[in-house]
Design brief:
This protein is α+β, with helices and mostly antiparallel strands and about 775 residues long. About 50% of the residues lie in helices and about 20% in strands. β6 and β7 form a beta hairpin.
């Protein structure tokens, strides 16, 4: 079977038609071109038929068109095959293709014969044309009738009713809806076909729903109108059951068939919502704790809420109609003009912190937010202001700032005090050895020219460490109860000599001043520092005023100043007429090494020393200044009870006696300082014993009873520091003399850095002559 099929399609024994046309090629190409043109045409027809069937889906017999398209497609393939066999003798394949084409053509013919009766029933173009003419005639007649109806008054009225924005309903005397315009459809949600013929009650919620028929009956019987001829606000009910507010106007009219009523309805939902929002906003504004104010572009106040009344003290009647300058200081009007310019430009001003003025003239800190107010056309016509009282927050921030500043100054004090203490030990060794060099060289020795500037430099370093210790509240103070009315005049003379003739010094002492407990010499240094700073701030001369008076700092003041203890104080105010300071400089003025002077013209320790001295004296210091208006520094010293001490003048230094008979125990943990101090004491003619710790010193004290003086450092390692050593030593030897030395005085014998009465102390670094005088004073006491 397979071989038979293969033999059927085998064309090896056949000769192509092309060989027959070799002697006439023009006939060959005539066949090729003709068959190709026919094939192309045949292939195009099925696609046209397919497009026609898909486009005209309403056409009957669509499958016939598709079958016919397949038949045409096969016809085109037959012509292509005729071209193919001119060169290849595939006559069997050509025969099969022609057979398929024949089958398709017969099928098409049979189906077409079957469909001819049905096709004959389709309307002919002539019949369709006649029907179309009849339809057009009917349409023209309807258009004529419509034009005639529109020309009538009734149609003009209907056009008006259909296009008004308000709902219009007509009902008969039984309440049946007769007309329902498009606006009603929009308002109530019912279509006209749903509403017409129904009772008007369907559009009414309770209580109107149950009362409506009673209104109509009463009107028919008595003629008394409760709602007819009267416009009022009622509620309507939509198709979805929701109730809404509406304005209703009802009128009555009579036709041939009886009395009728018309109602004009306006949905006022948006108006009500706007009114409610406005009322709610007004309530919010009125109940706000913040001041809410509106003004026009001329600055005239237009509204003034309760918050504004509470904040500024003016009632609404007092404020409305007044200029906004009512609550603005004259010197701040430029600020308000700037804000107004921003508003006119359409900008908002948010959280602007400033100060405004209350009715009594008191200033209040406020946070200000201002927004432009526009009219319906978007034109800016004014401004609304929200002012929040931030006084309490400002006070809290102030206290926090003071606390942070105090903590910073305390930290700086700890740092500088520790550095100064260690530096003092180094300076003690340097100065001591320089003193020994002076003793061991002659006046004409070439080394003397190097020794003297070295001593001066070391002494300058010692002065700087004293200032650092003063700032760190670690200097050794020797307070006395003094009366400033007697002490300050002496200081003022010194100040006048220091400042020169170009500065006028004025002393204004208060009457009946309280006594204070203060170290007179350190107070003098503090006043001299303030005076020198004032002089530098007045290069062209000026005035320096020193004033005193009594004051009580109460709990309220203390609450706003973290470092103040409430109580009685004596104030020393030092004021100048100099250049003044900016806020930024004031914030750093008391910090060590901060200075506004040129390099080399100031150490930056003057005010920091004053600050430390006042704090160590349990006092309080305040700085007031404005650029161009001078500076005032107030020192508050706590009131002291007791008798005034006699302030002794420093006696001239006396040379030590040549012969000494005392035995001195020197206790110092720093080996270099111990060695130097022992050498100094021995060079003064005294016998010396040495110890590096309190424990070692106690063993010596327990073994010896002939020790006359204990010279000990305050800070010693271990459990026994200087004060503890002195206490134990005095318990063993009650007549023993004690002299303390220290780079600073933060230890048990000091209370906040102030020496207790009767304690002898020499500060490091000390010169040999200073040590000689101090030892002599203690031994002779």
């Amino acid at each position: 079977m397979t071989r038979s099929i293969a033999d059927f399609f085998d064309s090896g024994n056949f000769m192509p038609h092309g060989h027959c046309f070799l002697w006439q090629p023009d006939i060959l190409w005539l066949h090729v071109l003709s068959d190709a043109a026919i094939a192309i045409a045949y292939f195009s027809i099925p696609f046209v038929l397919l497009h026609f069937v898909r486009t005209r889906k309403d056409m009957p017999f669509p499958k016939v068109f598709l079958l016919f398209g397949a038949f045409i497609l096969l016809c085109g393939a037959t012509h292509l095959m005729s071209i193919w066999v001119l060169w290849r003798p595939d006559y069997a394949l050509e025969g099969v293709l022609k057979a398929l084409t024949a089958i398709a053509s017969i099928a098409t013919f049979l189906i077409t014969i079957k469909l001819i009766p049905q096709a004959l029933l389709l309307a002919s173009p002539k019949q369709l044309g006649k029907v179309n003419e009849e339809l057009q005639a009917a349409n023209r007649m309807l258009e004529t009738l419509y034009r005639q109806s529109r020309e009538s008054d009734q149609m003009r009225l209907r056009a008006v009713v259909d296009n008004v924005v308000d709902g219009i309903i007509t009902i008969d005397e039984r309440g049946t809806i007769e007309s329902f315009n498009p606006a009603c459809e929009r308002i109530f949600g019912y279509g006209a076909d749903e509403a017409i013929g129904k009772n008007i009650r369907m559009l009414m919620p309770e209580p109107y729903h149950g009362e409506h028929d009673g209104y109509l009956k009463n009107y028919r019987e008595s003629g008394v109108a409760k709602i007819i001829g009267i416009g009022r606000e009622v509620s309507g009910r939509r198709k979805d059951g929701s109730v809404f507010p509406m304005d209703l106007s009802v009128s009555a009219f009579r036709l041939e068939d009886g009395r009728h009523f018309s109602g004009i309805i306006r949905d006022i939902t948006q108006r009500k919502q706007a009114e409610e929002a406005k009322a709610q906003l007004a309530a919010i504004v009125e109940s706000s704790v913040d001041a809410i104010i509106s003004k026009n572009l001329e600055g005239v106040i237009l509204s003034w809420n309760k918050g504004a009344e509470h904040l500024f003290g003016y009632s609404a009647a007092e404020a409305i109609g007044q200029h906004i300058g009512l609550i603005i200081r004259p010197d701040q009007m430029e600020e308000d003009r700037y804000i107004l310019a921003e508003i006119k430009a359409g900008k908002n001003v948010e959280h602007y912190e400033t100060r405004r003025m209350k009715k009594g003239g008191e200033l209040v800190d406020v946070s200000l937010t201002v927004s432009p107010v526009r009219n319906a056309d978007g034109v800016i016509t004014g401004a609304s202001k929200i002012l929040r009282d931030i006084s309490e927050r400002k006070e809290t921030e102030k206290v926090h700032d003071q606390l942070r500043h105090a903590q910073k100054m305390e930290s700086l004090g700890q740092l500088t005090g520790g550095i100064a203490h260690d530096f003092n030990n180094l300076l003690a060794v340097v100065l001591g050895n320089l003193d020994f060099l002076v003793e061991r060289t002659k006046e004409d020795d070439p080394l003397r020219k190097f020794i003297k500037p070295s001593i001066e430099a070391a002494e300058h370093g010692a002065e700087l460490t004293k200032q650092l210790l003063a700032f760190g509240r670690k200097q050794a103070l020797q307070p006395k109860i003094v009366f400033l009315g007697e002490l300050l005049p002496y200081f003022t003379v010194l100040v006048r000599h220091t400042l020169g003739e170009r500065i006028e010094v004025i002393l204004a002492l208060g009457s009946n001043l309280w006594n204070v407990s203060v170290d007179p010499s350190q107070l003098q240094n503090a006043l001299l520092n303030l005076a020198v700073n004032a002089r530098d701030a007045m290069p062209d001369g000026g005035k320096l005023i020193i004033e005193t008076h009594d004051v009580n700092l109460d709990k309220e003041y203390a609450a706003n100043n973290a470092d103040v203890v409430p109580g009685d104080y004596v104030v020393i105010a030092v004021s100048d007429t100099g250049e003044g300071m900016t806020q930024e400089i004031m914030e750093k003025a008391f910090e060590p090494f901060f200075t506004t002077k040129d390099v080399g013209k100031g150490s930056g320790l003057g005010l920091s020393m004053v600050y430390g001295f006042v704090k160590q004296s349990k006092g309080h210091i305040k700085l007031y200044s404005e650029p161009g208006h001078g500076t005032s520094i107030k020192i508050y010293l706590p009131r002291a009870e007791g008798d005034v001490s006699v302030v002794k003048q420093a006696k001239p230094e006396a040379l030590p006696v040549e012969e000494k008979s005392a035995l001195i125990l020197v206790v110092e943990d720093n080996k270099e300082v111990l060695k130097l101090t022992s050498s100094m004491v021995q060079s003064l003619g005294y016998e010396v014993l040495q110890a590096e710790t309190g424990g070692e010193a106690m063993r010596i004290l327990e073994a010896r009873s002939d020790i006359d003086l204990l010279l000990t450092d305050v800070m010693l390692p271990g459990d026994i520091n200087g004060p503890a050593l002195a206490k134990r030593a005095l318990a063993i030897h009650p007549k023993l003399k004690v002299l303390f030395n220290s780079g600073y005085a933060e230890h048990a014998i000091l209370e906040s850095g102030i020496l207790e009465v009767g304690v002898n102390l020499i500060g490091k670094p000390f010169r040999k002559q200073q040590l000689a005088n101090k030892i002599e004073d203690v031994l002779r006491a």
